[in-house]
């Protein structure tokens, strides 16, 4: 059994050493970590298998054998505890690869303990009870023990070991570790585990340094030193310990807690939700980029190789996850798209897109990185990493410096012109490119989404059952894989009768408000692009994704007022004498080209700027006319719809 156990440990050391090498170089398939669970990387620590493998060798010393047996007993208890956790969690029981990894870990821990115990007993029978031998220290070990016992001079204990090793070396070690992890491609979970180890080692160094200083100071007078120097040292140690306690409570503990949650697969930030359109050409990413988001993203891309665009709607998340997702996205030369929000870490993913589009109402936000309890030094390191990443994305220096001035608790949302100038976005989208309706996963979700809108509730009051009808329509078309624009057109057709009735029966004051609002919307659309204005005239522009928020709110409020208003008493038509008389006055206000365009809009479909100028001029001039003429023309225009 001893020989078999040694071979098993050696095999796993080689295999898991390879896993660590692939992890460090960023070549470990994320799906393996996803399949085998959060303990996969912890199992890969070679020391777990190195100590039993060496102790089972014939040349192992008795004292090391005793230590290895205790080490194996601790590993066995840990394995039993993990197996108990698996058994108590139904979700983990449904993951066969994870179960296999846990059973393998428990079996090897049991073999190690039994093998070492057997060899220990054989050695006892051969040579009798093993005497406890005093430890033989190396020169460095002897120095460490001499300091710990207070045997070194106070000056050496304080300046060399306290200030030099306990403070300066520990700080440099943590800074160096941060720099090293910044340039390596280890997973977020492994990064968290390494940081925890760094905190523990730094804490042990500090405790070793401070204990030796206190013990040396207590013996300083006996060695002929000054009593007031010893007292002053004790006072400095007290204040240092107090500062360390405060730092631990305010900084180290919050960081350790967050790292522990990440390392064990219980990140406080949720994993991003990923859905695909029926055609599979767009992946919609919604929510925070918590630990595991990269693994899910990689798996989704493998299932949908035809993906061309990544649609983002995220407030941010873990920078490490975002960096790795961005690297994968860039290697696939995919496009990115935003019509909701993409802030903080989400911008890393967005900037990796080959074509980067956003709607006029999209919110792309920037600020400094943040983490619970982070110190100013660590924040500066993280900020330098962010600066380096944004430079690699070819953002201009002035834009990057503006980002680095925004505190973690704040957020800067550049406007459309700033985003275009800084090359954050390559073009402005008019919406409906990502089929975001496909985020709704059931017919009930579609209905709930409609019911959340006050205007749809007004539609329902005018036409009971309309919401159910539209929800069925949207869900049916979604199941058929229809494009979002097709669904929007179908919904407009389904509600057209209610909408037109409201427009045709609206009283004069609401028609005035409608004309004023439409002229402002045309102006806003023209400011976006001539194409946006042309689509608004045709009724195909998504107002909610392109218009300023104030105009969107006014549009919704106006429609609600129209639906709730009493029908007008008198309506006018284009064939009436009243309209002909008022329309002739309007024609006098328009230029020849504008009269020509308004008379035949379809002829200018390939020249949306002419359409936009003509319709905008028409409504502005209508609003300047006398009340009677204005109301006759607006009423006739509504009746003609």
Describe what you observe in this structure.
The protein has helices at residues 2-24, 30-36, 40-43, 47-55, 62-87, 90-93, 96-127, 139-148, 154-183, 188-218, 227-263, 293-303, 319-331, 346-351, 376-392, 397-404, 416-421, 443-451, 454-462, 466-479, 484-505, 508-528, 530-538, 543-546, 549-564, 577-589, 592-599, 608-624, 627-639, and strands at 273-276, 282-286, 309-314, 335-343, 356-358, 363-365, 427-428. Helix 1 (2-24) packs antiparallel against helix 4 (47-55) and helix 23 (530-538) crosses helix 28. Helix content is 67%, strand content 5%. By secondary structure, the protein is mainly alpha-helical. The chain contains 29 helices and seven strands. Strands 1, 2, 3, 4, 5, 6 and 7 form a seven-stranded mixed beta sheet that branches.
Name some characteristics of this structure.
mainly alpha, seven-stranded mixed beta sheet, 29 helices, 7 strands, elongated
Main sheet summary: 7 strands, mixed
Overall radius of gyration? 35 Å
What's the total number of strands?
7
Label the structural class: mainly alpha
What is the helix tally? Answer: 29
What gross morphology would you assign? elongated
The fraction of residues in strands falls at under 5%
């Amino acid at each position: 059994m001893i020989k078999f156990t040694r071979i098993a440990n050696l095999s796993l050391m080689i295999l898991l050493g390879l896993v660590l090498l692939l992890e460090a170089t960023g070549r470990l398939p994320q799906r393996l970590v996803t399949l085998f669970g959060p303990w996969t990387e912890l199992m890969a620590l070679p020391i777990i298998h190195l100590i039993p493998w060496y102790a089972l060798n014939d040349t192992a010393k008795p004292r090391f054998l005793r230590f290895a047996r205790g080490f194996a007993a601790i590993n066995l208890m840990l394995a039993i505890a993990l197996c108990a956790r698996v058994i108590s969690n139904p979700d983990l029981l449904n993951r066969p690869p994870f179960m296999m990894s846990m059973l393998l870990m428990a079996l090897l821990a049991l073999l190690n303990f039994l093998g070492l115990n057997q060899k220990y007993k054989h050695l006892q029978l051969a040579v009798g009870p093993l005497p406890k031998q005093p430890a033989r220290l190396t020169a460095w070990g002897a120095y460490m023990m001499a300091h710990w016992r207070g045997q070194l001079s106070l000056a050496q204990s304080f300046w060399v070991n306290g200030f030099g090793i306990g403070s300066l070396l520990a700080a440099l070690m943590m800074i160096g570790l941060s720099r090293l992890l910044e340039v390596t491609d280890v997973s977020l979970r492994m990064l968290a585990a390494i940081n925890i180890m760094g905190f523990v080692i730094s804490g042990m160094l500090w405790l070793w340094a401070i204990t030796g200083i206190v013990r040396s100071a207590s013996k300083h007078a006996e060695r002929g030193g000054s009593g007031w120097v010893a007292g002053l040292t004790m006072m400095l140690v007290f204040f240092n310990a107090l500062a360390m306690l405060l730092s631990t409570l305010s900084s180290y503990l919050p960081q350790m807690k967050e790292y522990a949650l990440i390392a064990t697969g219980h990140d406080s930030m949720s994993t991003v939700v990923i859905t695909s359109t029926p055609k599979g050409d767009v992946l919609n990413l919604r929510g925070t980029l918590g630990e595991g988001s990269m693994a899910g993203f990689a798996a989704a891309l493998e299932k949908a190789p035809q993906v061309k665009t990544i649609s983002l709607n995220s407030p941010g998340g873990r920078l490490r996850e975002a960096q790795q997702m961005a690297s994968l996205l860039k290697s696939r030369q995919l496009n990115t798209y935003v019509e909701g929000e993409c802030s903080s870490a989400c911008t890393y993913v967005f900037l990796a897109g080959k074509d980067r589009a956003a709607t006029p109402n999209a919110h792309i936000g920037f600020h400094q990185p943040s983490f619970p309890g982070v110190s100013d030094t660590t924040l500066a390191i993280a900020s330098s990493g962010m600066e380096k990443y944004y430079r690699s994305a070819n953002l201009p220096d002035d834009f990057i410096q503006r980002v680095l001035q925004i505190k973690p608790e704040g957020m800067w949302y550049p406007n459309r012109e700033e985003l275009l100038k800084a090359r954050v976005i390559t073009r402005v989208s008019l919406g409906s490119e990502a089929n975001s309706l496909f985020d709704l996963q059931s017919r009930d979700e579609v209905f709930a989404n409609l019911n959340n809108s006050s205007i749809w509730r007004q539609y329902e009051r005018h036409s009971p059952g309309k919401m159910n009808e539209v929800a069925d329509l949207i869900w049916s078309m979604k199941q058929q894989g229809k494009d979002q624009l097709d669904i929007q057109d179908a919904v407009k057709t389904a509600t057209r009768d209610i909408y037109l009735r409201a427009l045709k029966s609206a009283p004069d004051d609401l028609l005035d408000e409608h004309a004023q609002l439409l002229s402002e919307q045309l102006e806003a659309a023209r400011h976006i692009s001539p194409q946006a204005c042309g689509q608004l005239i045709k009724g195909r522009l998504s107002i909610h994704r392109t218009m300023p928020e104030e105009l969107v709110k006014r549009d919704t409020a106006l429609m609600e007022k129209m639906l709730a208003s009493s029908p007008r008493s008198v309506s006018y038509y284009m064939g009436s004498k009243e309209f002909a008389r008022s329309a002739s006055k309007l024609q006098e206000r328009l230029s020849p080209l504008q009269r020509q365009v308004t008379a035949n809009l379809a002829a200018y479909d390939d020249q949306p700027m002419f359409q936009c100028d003509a319709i905008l001029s028409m409504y502005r001039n209508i609003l300047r006319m006398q009340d009677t003429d204005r109301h006759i023309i607006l009423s006739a225009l509504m009746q003609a719809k």
